[in-house]
Design goal:
The chain has 131 residues and is of the alpha+beta class. It is 26% helix and 8% strand. The two termini are 26 Å apart.
């Protein structure tokens, strides 16, 4: 699914619509932003390693807000991984995209009205006190 014609691809399971993660629509920049709340927390560190960065902390809820850390190193690591995948054409071996670069599942793009319904609960947005 995507929220707009140029938005991220938001991957979810077909059985129960559990969100899995987000990718760019271009598989040449191959990565997936995982939705950690959908994963087994006890396996996160074992499967993915230690938490190496905290970013976008301004939108965090709660007090005190976490401090940002590791952004520069993470960006450098990400760039190196992308270059390596591009040079070796490994990005074409994605379970989410065909070798031609198309998503393996049909993509539904939400209309403006559907996005408003998701955000406000109805098309007019009158049920939301924050209009």
């Amino acid at each position: 699914m995507r929220l707009g014609s140029k938005g991220l691809l938001r991957w979810h399971t077909s059985c129960c619509n559990t969100p899995v993660g987000n990718t760019l629509s271009n598989p040449r920049l191959g990565f997936i932003g995982l939705i950690h709340s959908s994963l087994d927390r006890s396996a996160l560190e074992k499967d993915f390693g230690n938490n190496i960065a905290r970013v976008n902390v301004d939108s965090a809820t709660g007090t005190p807000k976490p401090g940002q850390k590791g952004l520069f190193g993470t960006v450098l690591r990400f760039i190196a991984m992308i270059i390596s995948a591009r040079v070796g054409n490994r990005y074409k071996q994605s379970p989410l995209f065909t070798r031609e670069g198309e998503p393996v599942a049909p993509v539904t793009t939400l209309s403006r009205e559907q996005r408003k319904t998701l955000k406000y609960g109805d098309v007019t947005g009158q049920n939301n006190a924050h209009n």
